[in-house]
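INSTRUCTION: Work out how this chain folds

Token vocabulary: learned, describes local backbone geometry

RECORD BEGINS BELOW THIS LINE
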Amino acid sequence: MIETVNGHTDVIHYQYRQLPLWGCGPQPSPRDLCVQRYWRRDSDGSYIILLRSREHPQCPPRPGYVRATLLGGGFVISPLPRQGAADTVRPDSLIMQIIEMVPGGWLPPRSPVAYVRF
């Protein structure tokens, strides 16, 4: 967490490293992002989380990392209707994610997008 703008908006620095692609030659550089996150809770219990890249003085690009750009996207987390008494213990949710990102730099052709946050 870089900065809390208000109760629903903050700036976050994400760092990702590529999972090893054995036998694929040179490995791509790790990626980082500086992202503004906004969230809200709707009256039906759903959460909306919106993300987009931004620049921030406390979040410069890191040496050895490629700065990716998150053009926009986010998550919708919606509670599913309960089916019976057993569902009161463990409520289920539907999670939808839409992200448009420019990874920046070189990626091997036909490589799976297999990044891990650390």
